[in-house]
Design brief:
The complex is a heterodimer of chains A (about 350) and B (about 550). Helices cover about 35% and strands about 20% of the residues of chain A. Chain A is an alpha/beta fold and about 350 residues long. Chain A has two domains: about 190 residues, Rossmann fold; about 150 residues, Dimethylsulfoxide Reductase, domain 2, CATH 3.40.228.10. In chain A, helix 7 links the parallel strand 7 and strand 8. The longest helix of chain A is centred in the C-terminal third of the chain and has 15 residues. The radius of gyration of chain A is 23 Å and the shape is elongated. Chain B is of the alpha/beta class and about 550 residues long. Chain B has one domain: TIM Barrel (Alpha-Beta Barrel), CATH 3.20.20.140. Chain B contains 17 helices and 26 strands. In chain B, a hairpin with a 2-residue loop joins strand 2 and strand 3. The two termini of chain B are about 35 Å apart. The relative contact order of chain B is 0.17. Classes of the chains: A alpha/beta (about 350), B alpha/beta (about 550). At the A-B interface, helix 2, helix 3, strand 5, helix 4 and helix 11 of A face helix 1, helix 2, helix 3 and strand 18 of B. Bound molecules: zinc ion. The site of zinc ion has 8 residues of chain B, from strand 7. Zinc ion binds next to strand 7 of chain B.
């Protein structure tokens, strides 16, 4: 571990760090993207962005912003997975992608409560692993209509053109109103913003009569934690830039792929410590990659980093607790962490440009 | 290195000093005047005022709820570089949405050097400490929230011994690295889980059969028996409701003779008189505080403008969500207390908001012991902490208050006593309330004063007719003897530490908590732990010894 390459040739780590610092120092508009890293790595990435006037974006910002947009444009009732584990008597699973987003979901939340799954993905349900799960709707494409329908019937409004039998919906609504503590679970990776907003509106409405909350599942690659770090260090979510000296947030302007493909960015630092996700942009540009798997990316400087929580201790967002927590390394390795590499780049750059 | 601050007006109520004189600093501490020896560095501060660095005992500056507030209010931008010297008064008055860097720099520019984040839920303590670690210059501390958690409520339901409660409080405090313990709407959040929407001091939590009063009393005793420096910090029931002065008065009475701190009392100073059924009960409440010598309070002053309310009083925040401005909110109906983020705009034209503003000032002006009343806005709930200089100016100047009142609706002021109050705070009162008294209340022996041995946390102000400007832009601020602010501008931003208590924690409770978490959550309580190694700063915590 701790291997590094400069233009495809194996190089000592310190040389690779020096070359990475050179590339970033020569850039007008660097983007620091991917951000699949632990909390220490995210803190270092934002320190680097602040130092060089860079932009920070996460590879799962689209999903992060979809949930966040409902919060910052409407309202959201949420609960914690631990509270759901202990007290929920009813679980409303909404749409596809849930097991994929949180593999431990069945183990943590499927026992001891009534479960209804709206429009599950075929793969999740065809195995019929989950015997106590009732299914309403079988086509994920119909989910937005079904959620709207449920909300309308819940509010006692008439509806037309229901994709499934109204009696089924009404029975379901009656059940929702009878639960003691219902929890709606979804993964923003698989919904549009309007569906999430409709669902959260339904959850809010249900609180007039009973206890009901949402449990949005976090995106992969520690995205939820990185968003928190961006929140406290910049005051904004991801897609924030330091180009004018102070942090500015703009979900369109500071999207990494757009910046690269439009040519506005002239250098990128790509961070993917949880495995091998390559960037989505199409254009070639001077690239520094901090990655768990160097074979997956062609870059000017490639530095192999350890997997957080496996190769080194890490603070991560845990789906099980819904909080940041320390995860001790299961197989401690002498691997470099994202934070240690970025801190060395920052030190080199600070020495070159004393402030 | 020996540094001398020469010829300033030293205001140091803890040492009964109010004279022109010198202050000497060596190795981060205040030292005696040297007998001979050379001064390496000297600052001429004649005609300036010197106080210890200010201490804020209650300001929501870190943790997942604060960050949620930041994330949901992106429109509250601050286009200001804190190191470039532009004027903090030119913030477009956002609230509570600043990042950690701005938070530390803005506090320091006003001469604050220690700030307490007062609401950390035990499960979420790690994030709070990580955020505090990214706030520069100032030192920090946290209060750990108990009182709506299943474990404690069960201890009370089963009438377990006070030592069991004490052990549990000690364990939670040590896992979460808190300095003290806070209770927020005791039992109210637990009752909310059963769909209760109102909850008072003598109401019982469904399922547990435990009253709010019993929870407060049990925790008050636990804090006392653990010999924690800071008394139990109470956020009462019924925040914000007309007639809630009765709740506050009953809670004050419930203190009996043991120390008890009531947070943001302004939000409980409301009667039901007057044409709108909403009136100030500030005078009554102040009288009760004056009489109850074991009680301390902080005000939670309201100022007009946009802010965001951030609170672990989930019941109150849920009820308030429909008055959100702008219209958006996040309620977390989660473990133990939960939380709610609700943006709010206090308007100088709004009857209720003006009464709230007046109640806060009445408490400041009618509570006569500056050692028992603390200066807060419950940042950002009543106002952002950047409003502090304006509030200090109002306290020091009755003409300024009259000028404000002349522009506010008469009908609102008529249900208050504010216009009849002539008192003006002196600089000694201000130094007591913002320095000496907070250090005493938190048990920080080497802070809040300028005596020999004190930490060299020092604020130097340039007096002038405009008191707000004086307090907004300190002339010089030293943190641990290092110059960090000059002429209201941060010139150096080192990172401070976080103060915590270290009560004895028996092995028995560790085993019991491990079993409880396994049984209830099928988890190890390991996820709650805050380890020094992950904080990302060398030596991140400083232990404040318990009382002996
Ligand atoms: Zn508060």
């Amino acid at each position: 571990m701790g291997e590094a390459w400069i233009r495809g040739k194996s190089a000592p780590l310190d040389d690779a760090i020096a070359e990475a610092a050179n590339i970033v120092a020569g850039s007008r508009q660097p983007v620091i993207a991917g951000l699949g890293t632990d909390v220490a790595g995210a803190r270092a990435a934002i320190r680097l962005a602040r130092l060089v006037g860079g932009v920070v974006d996460h590879m799962h910002s689209d999903a992060l912003l979809r949930d966040l947009d409902v919060m910052r444009e409407a309202g959201m009732m949420v609960t914690m997975p631990t509270e759901a584990h202990v007290r929920a008597d009813f679980l409303l699973l909404v749409g596809p992608g849930l097991i994929e987003a949180w593999p431990a979901l069945p183990e943590r939340l499927f026992a001891k409560r009534r479960i209804v799954w709206l429009c599950p993905d075929a793969a999740a349900i065809s195995a019929s692993t989950y015997k106590n799960v009732a299914v309403v709707g079988d086509n994920p494409a119909e989910l937005p209509a079904i959620v709207a329908l449920v909300r309308a019937r819940c509010a006692g409004r008439p509806v037309a053109n229901a994709p499934i039998a109204l009696a089924t919906i009404d029975a379901f609504v009656a059940e929702l109103k009878r639960v003691r503590f219902g929890v709606a679970v979804w993964s923003a990776a698989r919904h549009d913003g309007l569906t999430i907003e409709m669902l959260c509106g339904l959850v809010n409405d249900l609180n007039a009569a009973t206890r009901f909350s949402g449990l949005p599942l976090a995106s992969a690659d520690n995205a939820a934690a990185v968003q928190q770090v961006a929140g406290w260090m910049t005051g904004y979510p991801l897609r924030t830039g330091f180009g004018r000296g102070v942090p500015e947030h703009d979900p369109w302007r500071f999207e990494a792929s757009r910046l690269v493909d439009s040519g506005e960015a002239d250098c990128a630092v790509w961070i993917s410590a949880y495995g091998a996700r390559p960037p989505a942009w199409k254009r070639d540009l001077p690239l520094v990659a901090l990655t768990g798997d160097p074979n997956t990316i062609r870059s000017h400087v490639t530095i192999t980093v350890g997997r957080p929580g496996l190769d080194h201790d890490a603070v991560e967002h845990l789906a099980t607790t819904g909080t940041l927590a320390t995860v001790s390394a299961r197989q401690p390795e002498a691997a470099a962490s994202v934070a240690s590499v970025l801190d060395k780049i920052i030190t080199k750059l600070s020495a070159a440009h004393p402030c | 290195m020996l540094t001398r601050l020469a010829g300033g007006h030293v205001i140091d109520p803890a040492n009964r000093r109010d004279t022109i004189g010198d202050i000497f600093i060596r190795d981060g501490r205040i030292v005696d005047a040297p007998a001979g020896g050379t001064v390496d560095e000297s600052y001429d501060i004649s005609h300036k005022i010197v106080m210890a660095g200010a201490i804020d005992i209650h300001s929501h500056i870190a943790g997942s709820n604060e960050t949620m507030g930041r994330l949901v209010l992106p429109e509250h931008r601050s286009h200001r570089s804190l190191l470039d010297g532009s004027h903090p008064g030119h913030f477009p008055r956002p609230a509570g949405t600043w990042n950690t860097f701005e938070t530390g720099c803005t506090y320091a520019a006003m001469g604050f050097t220690t700030v307490v984040e007062p609401a950390v839920l035990p499960h979420q303590a790690l994030q709070a400490h990580l955020e505090l670690a990214d706030i520069p210059i100032i030192d920090k501390a946290t209060l750990t929230v108990l009182g709506n958690d299943d474990f404690l409520l069960n201890l009370l339901r089963r009438r377990e011994s006070s030592s069991a409660i004490r052990d549990y409080a000690a364990w939670t405090l040590s896992t979460s690295r808190g300095l003290g313990i806070k209770v927020i709407n005791a039992g109210g959040a637990a009752a909310f889980k059963d769909n209760l929407r109102v909850f008072s001091l003598d109401d019982e939590v469904p399922q547990y059969g435990v009253s709010s009063r019993a929870i407060v009393k049990a925790l008050q005793h636990a804090v006392h028996e653990l010999r924690l420096t800071h008394p139990l910090h109470v956020h009462c029931n019924n925040l914000g409701l007309a007639g809630n002065v009765e709740t506050a008065l009953a809670t004050i009475e419930a203190a009996e003779s043991l120390p008890l701190h009531l947070a943001h009392l302004q939000f409980y100073g409301y009667g039901k008189e007057g044409p709108r059924g909403f009136s100030s009960a500030g005078a009554r409440l102040a009288e009760a505080v004056n009489t109850a010598k074991s009680v301390t309070i902080d005000v939670g002053q309201v100022m007009f403008g946009q802010t965001v309310t951030i609170s672990c009083d989930v019941l109150r925040q849920f009820n308030a969500r429909n008055s959100a401005h702008p219209k958006k909110w996040v309620i977390c109906d989660g473990d133990s207390n939960g939380a709610g983020i609700v943006p709010y705009h206090y308007k100088a034209t709004d009857f209720f908001n003006v009464v709230q503003w007046a109640v806060g000032l009445e408490l400041f002006l009618l509570i006569n012991d500056p050692w028992r009343i603390f200066f807060t806005t419950d940042h950002p709930n009543g106002a952002p902490f950047t409003a502090y200089p304006d509030i200090l100016a109002l306290l020091m100047d009755r003409d300024l208050r009259a000028e404000w009142m002349s522009r506010l609706p008469k009908d609102a002021l008529e249900v208050t006593t504010l216009s009849s109050i002539a008192r003006e705070y002196s600089l000694v009162d201000i130094a007591t309330m913002t320095r000496a008294a907070p250090a005493k209340l938190l048990g920080l022996k080497d802070r809040g004063h300028l005596g020999v041995g004190a930490l060299a946390d020092i604020a130097v102000y340039s007096p002038g007719n405009d008191k707000a400007t004086m307090f907004r832009e300190a002339a010089l601020v030293f943190k641990n003897g290092q110059l960090v602010v000059r002429d209201g501008t941060v010139c150096h931003a080192p990172f401070g530490r976080t103060l915590r208590a270290d009560p004895d924690c028996e092995n028995g409770i560790k085993v019991r908590m491990r079993d409880y978490y396994e049984e209830r959550y099928a988890l190890s309580p390991e996820f709650m732990m805050v380890a020094d190694a992950v904080i990302g700063r060398p030596d991140p915590f400083e232990i404040v010894p318990c009382l002996n």
